[in-house]
Design a protein that fits this description.
The complex is a heterodimer. Chain A is mostly beta strands. Chain A has no helices and eleven strands. In chain B, the strands form two sheets. In chain B, strands 2, 4, 5, 9, 10 and 11 form a six-stranded mixed β-sheet that branches. In chain B, strands 1-3-8-7-6 form a five-stranded antiparallel β-sheet, with no helix packed on it. Classes of the chains: A mainly beta, B mainly beta.
Chain lengths: 112, 110
């Protein structure tokens, strides 16, 4: 069964540094998403992306965040200057139109 | 008020038991409904979509009551492998973003 894959599985970064999280969505999917889950809390929507542009973003997704689809397969989330409160699991998801979203197994981001 | 509310549990049940989880949502514009399961420190995985007429998938039955803005999940004949957190998820009309509840933790014991 096709999967969404994410790298790295764990990223440790100093506060103030830039970090890029990578995702390879399922190949025939056209809609891409990032979510995050702070330890012990619910999963929260960050951003959705379609046709090479952001469709929707949450209030969490401020100017420090950006997304990109640099080639035909990768979908990245960049955090420009990380803060302690950015520590969380970050999940990428993808789907076809009007179908359920499938999640990658996440990147655990730890900010020191 | 949280948009999607669930009893956090934990629900501790013996193998073979039937267990039911409830979820309420506050936004009447909610359009699509799902149950996902999440194992500890893993990604959410789709368990089932929830349809207005109710639907069943093996030991799992989901119900939706739009008037009461209430969703339920029934698990029959619980297995040890059912131990997980069950996430109630909704979307609104004209948006694809998933809105998650905090989840209900289930622990099935031998």
């Amino acid at each position: 069964e096709p999967e969404v894959t994410q790298t790295p599985s764990h990223q440790v970064t100093q506060m103030g540094q830039e970090v890029i999280l990578r995702c390879v969505p399922i190949s025939n999917h056209l809609y891409f998403y990032w979510y995050r889950q702070i330890l012990g809390q619910k999963v929260e929507f960050l951003v959705s992306f379609y046709n090479n542009e952001i469709s929707e973003k949450s209030e969490i997704f401020d100017d420090q965040f950006s997304v990109e689809r640099p080639d035909g397969s990768n979908f990245t989330l960049k955090i420009r200057s990380t803060k302690l409160e950015d520590s969380a699991m970050y999940f990428c998801a993808s789907n076809e139109r009007n179908q359920p979203q499938h999640f990658g197994d996440g990147t655990r981001l730890s900010i020191l | 008020r949280k948009e999607v509310e669930q009893d956090p549990g934990p629900f501790n049940v013996p193998e073979g038991a039937t267990v039911a989880f409830n979820c309420t949502y506050s936004n009447s514009a909610s359009q699509s409904f799902f149950w996902y399961r999440q194992d500890c420190r893993k990604e959410p995985k789709l368990l089932m979509s929830v349809y207005s007429s109710g639907n069943e998938d093996g030991r799992f039955t989901a119900q939706l009551n739009r008037a009461s803005q209430y969703i339920s999940l029934l698990i029959r004949d619980s297995k040890l492998s059912d131990s997980a957190t069950y996430l109630c998820v909704v979307t609104h009309y004209n948006t694809d973003k998933l809105i998650f509840g905090t989840g209900t933790r289930l622990q099935v014991f031998p």
